[in-house]
Amino acid sequence: MFNIALDGPGGAGKSTVAKAIAKELGFIYVDTGALYRAIGLYSLRKAVDTRDISGVIGLLDEIDVNFTYVDGEQRVMLNGEDVSTDIRLPEVSMAASNVSAIPEVRAFLLDLQRKIASEKDCLMDGRDIGTVILPNAQLKIFLTASAEVRAKRRYDELLAKGQKVDYDEILKDLNERDYQDSHREIAPLKQADDAVYLDTSDLTFEEVMKRIIDLYEERK
Ligand code: DC
């Protein structure tokens, strides 16, 4: 199997790029953030504070989270319900970041991620794919961009969806979540030693695509 590990902070454009590349290479695209989001969403629904470590751990027994693929598109199933839309609600982002700092939650999701990667050529995106989940991935990329560029991209994306948005608030939320994801004890967001660093602040979507496809061609 060929595994591509794509890590980086929120809003770096990982999912857009990852989807397009997976399609081009005939790989499946695995968005691991969706798993943490599903657990964050479940905690919110059960009114369990996502910073309450034992409270969240207590819910894991009730949770079955999985992926299905519909027309090649990843859907996230939470206890049999397709929650792919609900996990994108703004309040779920911080909830996901909170639960993702809990070691038991990370352990709970580990096997599923490794199993998928062992069965299929895939491009997996997240925070710890190159460092923890798939240390032997044939290609690792750390994709980032300045906080301002990332906030602007998220702003444009939400605006295009017709949502009411405030740039400063988005920038503040992104910074807060990056700080939390990079400073947690377990599997923090960080570049793997053997990952290729790619700053996309001044690159177009096509340029980013080409860089990654070229790297894949070199390694395969
Ligand atoms: O990629 P995303 O923004 O959907 O991820 C939501 C949160 O999940 C993110 O703030 C941190 C956490 N996460 C993680 O800890 N490890 C991953 N591999 C993916 C996401």
Overview of this protein structure:
There is one protein chain. The protein is α/β, with parallel strands linked by helices. It has one domain (3-219): Rossmann fold (3-Layer(aba) Sandwich). The chain has nine helices and eight strands. The strands form two sheets. The chain has a five-stranded parallel β-sheet, with helices on both faces. Strands 3-4-5 form a three-stranded antiparallel β-sheet. A hairpin with a 2-residue loop joins strand 3 (65-70) and strand 4. Helix 4 runs parallel beside helix 8 and helix 7 (147-160) packs across helix 8 (167-183). The mean pLDDT is 95. Bound molecules: 2'-deoxycytidine-5'-monophosphate. 2'-deoxycytidine-5'-monophosphate binds next to helix 2, helix 4 and helix 8.
List unreliable stretches of 5+ residues: none
Strand content: 15-25%
User: What's the level 1 CATH class?
Assistant: Alpha Beta
Order of strands across the widest beta sheet? 2-6-1-7-8
Q: Helix/strand/pairing class, anyone?
A: alpha/beta
Average pLDDT works out at 95
Number of strands: 8
Describe the global form. globular
